[in-house]
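> call design_seq(struct)
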């Protein structure tokens, strides 16, 4: 494979709304907006409004996410979403509970609300965006903001992998229970629905990816990956309108913290990948306890077999650790605002 010279990155920040990561280029090919992270969403309460990454594009500019698909309007590109958080739903839509035996609108759709930008910057290694959020319950009638359940420090990083025709989105969420009571985190599977343990960092692919190729690090392929363990899982799909394919590989970098991450993936009736930490085991988060979820996502041009997906996963793992991590980052000096416009 021909090694292409790396193109530096810039961050475009629309204050109190979103950040966009764009490749810089003084000659063809033209700059590409790799991702747009909307941290102040405006969607209805029923959709559990929360920050999302959409659109997400390959280095050549091909889109690999969908936003508010008609079948699940609460699916939004890549989001951190949890469906069964004690009595609350931070996933969107109806909630699956053992008491009902199926999905019901319980008026419990919480929101993830941006509080403060801690750091934003770009250098030769890539870009970083860090902010704080509060996860609020759905407000009671007559109130505009519900009770706080979690506070979060969230760090997103972007690094180019030109030798792989790819780039990497790093995602770290550090969630602290501020509700005053222990909280059970689970999934529809812990509530009784078999093999539906979704929740966590969730990617919804474009409709043209339906029926695409799923491969996991454990050697399992296709729909059989769902419910299995492994370091990474990848999806290759085809695009409409152009003779091209793209690949998305998720790497689970979350340290053991008393839960058992399994993959929730689908290729039918739609494309998705989700490393689900509460797939089939409830994890009680104690008062003031912090749980950290850490992932890397490689976004690549072209189709991939197991060998290429493994290479992408290894490269993503190597570049997805931010220079400043942990809750101590809240007390650290912000990243210099170089290359931010």
């Amino acid at each position: 494979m021909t090694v292409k010279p790396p193109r530096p990155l810039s961050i475009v920040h629309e204050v109190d709304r979103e950040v966009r990561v764009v490749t810089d280029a003084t000659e063809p090919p033209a700059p590409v907006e790799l991702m747009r992270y909307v941290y102040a969403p405006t969607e209805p309460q029923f959709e559990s409004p929360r920050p999302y990454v959409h659109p997400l594009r390959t280095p050549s500019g091909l889109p690999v996410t969908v936003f508010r698909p008609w079948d699940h309007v609460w699916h939004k590109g890549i989001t951190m979403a949890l469906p069964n958080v004690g009595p609350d739903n931070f996933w969107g839509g109806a909630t699956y509970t053992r008491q009902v035996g199926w999905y019901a609108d319980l008026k419990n759709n919480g929101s993830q609300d941006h509080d403060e930008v801690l750091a934003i910057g770009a250098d030769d290694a890539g870009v970083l965006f860090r902010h704080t959020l509060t996860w609020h319950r759905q407000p009671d009638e007559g109130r505009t903001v519900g009770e706080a359940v979690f506070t979060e420090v969230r760090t997103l990083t972007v690094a180019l992998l030109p030798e792989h025709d790819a780039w990497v989105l790093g995602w770290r969420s550090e969630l602290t229970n501020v509700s005053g009571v222990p909280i059970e985190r689970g999934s529809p599977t812990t509530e009784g629905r078999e093999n539906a343990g979704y929740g966590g960092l969730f990617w919804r692919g474009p409709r043209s990816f339906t029926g695409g190729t799923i491969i996991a690090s454990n050697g399992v392929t296709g729909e059989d990956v769902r419910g299995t363990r492994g370091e990474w899982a990848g999806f290759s799909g085809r695009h409409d309108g152009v003779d091209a394919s793209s690949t998305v590989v998720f790497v689970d970098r979350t340290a053991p913290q008393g839960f058992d991450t399994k993959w929730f993936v689908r290729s039918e009736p739609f494309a998705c990948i989700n490393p689900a930490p509460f797939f089939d085991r409830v994890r009680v988060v104690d008062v003031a306890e912090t749980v950290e979820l850490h992932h890397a996502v490689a976004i690549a041009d072209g189709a991939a077999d197991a060998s290429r997906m493994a290479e992408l996963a290894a490269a993503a793992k190597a570049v997805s650790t931010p220079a400043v991590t942990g809750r101590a980052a809240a007390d650290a000096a912000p990243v210099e605002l170089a290359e931010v416009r």
